[in-house]
Amino acid sequence: MRDTRESRLLLVLLIAIAFALITVDIRGGEDSPVDGARRAAATVFGPVEEGMSSAVDPIGNAIGAVRDSGERHDRIAELERQNAALKARLGSDDRNRSRVRQLDSMLKTAGAGQYGIKGAEVIGIGAAQGFSWTVTIDAGAKDGLKRDMTVLNGDGLVGRVTTVGPDTATVLLANDPDFTVGTRMEKTDELGFATGQGDRPLSVQLLNGKSEVKKGDRLVTFGSRKDKPFVPGVPVGEVVRVDPSGGDLTRTVYVKPYVGFTRLDIVGVVVDSPREDPRDTVLPKKPEKPKPTPTVTVTATPSGKPEGDGAGNPADGAADPADGAADPADGAANDDEQ
What pairing do the DSSP bridges indicate for beta strands 235-242 and 134-137? Predict the structure, then answer.
């Protein structure tokens, strides 16, 4: 349609008629004079609209599905995050329970020996000094730590402090080849020096070459002058092998340490020494040996005459001569009467 004066006038007229019909429809309400025409239009164009809706609905559903899939993806991602957080919390709870057990065991050890300790956590392995068996703990000079303090845990001797910083400290472990500690045997009080051998048992040189030592004997720290670097009575380990004496002045035994140096976590640094040597009181109680179960032996005897009766017959027969011996006496009495 070309844009002419007549077409513009027609457009204006149609718009005016439309506004007039709308005004009449609104004012008429339910009794609108154009209601019949509207119903007729609905009858004519309703099926067309329904068909168009059926054709368009799959597209709308697809668009909604895409939108909902994004929301579902977000919900799945949120659930995954919550699941990961729950797993981390459960793992953390297991670790916390383990650390609580370690702390409780360490406090019992410190209480048995009357050691004043400062608790710390192992935060690193290997120190800058180049020691092969060292750990770093999260306590230092600000916590009252000093060089050459004894370090222990709930199992026994861990090592000694070698370097102290403001907030951290380095601990030389007891299994390091440069580590040496004086030891004392349980009960026998035999003295010696234990030296670390890495992942092998400690080597202990007993001063008495003729000392009586056997597998399973236990050792504790002997202690140092002014309790530096070692306080007395800290459990060291158990004897697992004894070398023959061979007449030497010293005797070598090998001791399995109580402490697992590859799984250290919570440790305690002894900042206050005990007033008295705890001796063997810090050592754990040995498990009681199981008592032997009594056995009952039943012996079967052959059927027949009881053994006791046969033994009694001779005794009965031995009485007969005695009876017979009385006869001469009776006869002698008869002669006297005659």
Answer: unpaired
- The pLDDT value recorded for residue 26 is 61
DSSP-derived secondary structure letter, 294: P
Tell me the per-residue pLDDT of 169-210, one tens digit each, with 9 for 90 and over: 999 999 999 999 999 999 899 999 999 999 999 999 999 988
Exposed, middle or buried, 88 (CB in 10 Å: 0-12/13-18/19+)? Answer: exposed
Helix (H) or strand (E) segment spanning residue 268? strand 266-272
CA nearest 132: which of 195, 180, 176, 179? 176
CA distance 142 to 120: 13
Helical segments of the chain, H only: 5-28, 35-113, 307-337
Backbone angles phi, psi at 9, to 5 degrees: -65, -40
- Count of residues in the chain: 338
DSSP summary character for residue 255: E
